[in-house]
Amino acid sequence: MKIVVEILPVLLAMIFAVNIFVGSGILNIISGKLKEIIPMVVLRPISGNASLAMLSKIYQSSGVDSFISFLASIIQGATDTTIYVLALYFGSIKIKNSRYALPLGLFADVCGITAAFVVAKIFF
Fold it and tell me: Which residues lie below 8 Å from residue 33, measured CB to CB, with a gap of 6+?
């Protein structure tokens, strides 16, 4: 119960931030040629459930056998919910100075997304 009480403020803040981000319409502005992939790429480091919902929408709109669906599936598996993990785990043990954790985590996500594009292009 003690852990739940310590983690609850961090979780509520993350849920609030994701809802504001999705509701703001920024995703519609930055979407262009890869209109279906970009929102998932942007949401993936923030929320796993939101990116999974975007993946489901991609499956419904493009079909599960399309290139976009194949690429989105690889991105879902090759990246992590970096910001969520940092907020939850660092917040639960009260680490105030994360130093290089966020930049390196986001760099790893960019590497995973880049690798997903390369692998999708090679194998599809």
Answer: none
